């Protein structure tokens, strides 16, 4: 074989420009130049194109664009693509810039009036294959799959996978040469290709595989046994032929540019003029590294990069894109950075990359107590380091060097060097639960931005399907078991804080955290686009991080003396109830002992329904006691419930909250978990300030201890019946929707319509029953649950529920629909598209299955409410600042926000907060039922709510 004969065929890359444009536009949040020109799609496109140019083995490359909406297909079928919406207004001015960007990168930009980009791609791919070239079409567009052959393949850049004959067969059920026949029958609603009514992809594939091709099928359509299918094919044969003309790509367009013009050319310094004009600092960092120092100096000499940073409100200027599995294994090649020269090298690498994974090690998980021990950085998969700044020596065993502290950069100096990088808007900082890192670094004067969070990306993708801790995600997505904290710091009484961990162990543990964070981000972030979840992440989850971090830092003031007084009051009342319990029982026993209580209830008093568990003790949980209260009529179970409530209030709040007061701030700082619930709700921990009971007088007393600073007042704003309003909206219950629009008493109206009683002079008990049903229905309440809540028989409760469904049938339709969706998909969605997973919806265990069915019903409502209040929280700081208000947001308790505002600002702060909350769903989602936020003020939380 001659050398010429053995030469590898040239590789031609044809990029579907439209696919790149729209993915880039939806991948990044709004971004604009200092002159106001929108540029997010341009930047995303440039990053994607640069990666393709760098990673591909192309000898020839071109980006193919659509020249306009009208093509020869409109002459065949006037309605072709007629209902496609116009491009978003902020995208339109970016089309020309993207073509300019393509040329700036020294890549051919091709378009031709009268033809779609797909036709040009088909023509060039056919020409290239005919002359022996290998062809890769960079697109996941199903219409291009008809081109796949021996020398032609598609490549999906978002999923990083090749699409060959096997993938086409999986998609269409036929080989590529029959894709047109299948599409002719099935049609395409997105392009308004009619096809044959009643025939989808699966049926079309079955027919083509049976009859061989479209013409044969249509000729023998009268032989088909299924009457409806036969009738549709016979009556719509012409539509099928028209559809074939529409979906068949032209492979013989009289193109004006030859393949030889697409030869791959090196990116040169000319690209810098384009990125400078558009103020793409992150992209400039990448290109600087590529073009070399001479280009950097020339650009700086020309005055480049002095314009202000483009202004994305939450925004990364660069996002690492998915890549093939890196050669460097996790845990290999990490560097211990112990001097300034080494740290400066890593800072330079991060600046060139435009992104870095960042993680910190501290002495405590409590943000306000944690001392910084070290920081780890990763600038690509397998390239990570650890920068110790606070390790101390105590014994020779711990550090291997006696009692002296190990060699490390002084803390203040390390922060001084890293601060510009961590605050640089041109470098994306990636963390896993980065809120913690932001909060700790803020105490050292560093504001980390812009940010991405691999934990929250995972949370948006698979909310309640599994946990989102790094260890679990590493095993799930990377197949790697991470080093555990106990492996380096010890366990139990032998555990030390991280500042006592030896540097070799600290390096392996901390650098791995940064490396894994990078890899998780690289793996998961592209899925947001592919699974259409980018909007949830970009508009809700990511911008919420700094808002919540600030709330946690601000904390809330607690009156310790009031809590001490309450503790004494609760103790006194518990003593009284305990004596009453002993009197009723006829003997003294430990009320706090479930075992002794069970023996009193079921052995001594002989109350019905006692059930023993595996330990041999009777079950005495709240559900058991509540049922006993209803079924037995005995006073003892209710007395025990009263005693337990006071006991919990005393131990959990009155006694514990004073211990949680930070001595430096005099305030309590809760932590809000951002990825802990299946519906998107925040969860308060350490201490939990969302679980303070407010339905009882005793519970409300705890809120009296939450007070404002002198000269300030607490402002509470909460949504009125938001989940019930959303139920009316999502179940399309017009009478309820109209009642909300009219501002009617919804519970009285429900009672009137369901029970047939007039609103005027209505018995309060009847309204209470309707209220219980209204709220119970959206939680999937059973007849038993309603009977317990109202103190009525199950038969009567069941009749109430049936009457409710009869009056509002849309509710039952909604419930059935949510359960069906959950069974099919494993999740339900909020109005904003958040996925709420319901594992166990198909469980064989009836109790678990029933529980998850109720979750499927409520999750879209609770999740939509969570999305709405999160959107309000994100907008609140800017709204207060714009109004010149100094108030600050302290707490979120599901549907309620608590603020601390100067007394003089209370009316304006109330107005602004209510306006933001009532309009938080806009412009993303138009809801036909008005959202109402009620506001109250007071010197303490109880007065304000």
TrEMBL record:
Domain DNA-directed DNA polymerase family A palm: 699-905
UniProt keyword terms in alphabetical order: DNA damage, DNA repair, DNA replication, DNA-binding, DNA-directed DNA polymerase, Exonuclease, Hydrolase, Nuclease, Nucleotidyltransferase, Transferase
The 3'-5' exonuclease domain, residue ranges: 334-529
The 5'-3' exonuclease domain, residue ranges: 7-265
Gene3D superfamilies assigned to the protein according to its UniProt record, in alphabetical order: 3.30.70.370, 5' to 3' exonuclease, C-terminal subdomain, 5'-nuclease, Ribonuclease H-like superfamily/Ribonuclease H, Taq DNA Polymerase, Chain T, domain 4
CDD domains, sorted: DNA_pol_A_pol_I_C, DNA_polA_I_Ecoli_like_exo, H3TH_53EXO, PIN_53EXO
One function term, GO molecular function aspect: DNA-directed DNA polymerase activity
Reaction(s) the record says it catalyses: DNA(n) + a 2'-deoxyribonucleoside 5'-triphosphate = DNA(n+1) + diphosphate
Oligomeric and partner information: Single-chain monomer with multiple functions.
Function: In addition to polymerase activity, this DNA polymerase exhibits 3'-5' and 5'-3' exonuclease activity.
The protein's name in its UniProt record: DNA polymerase I
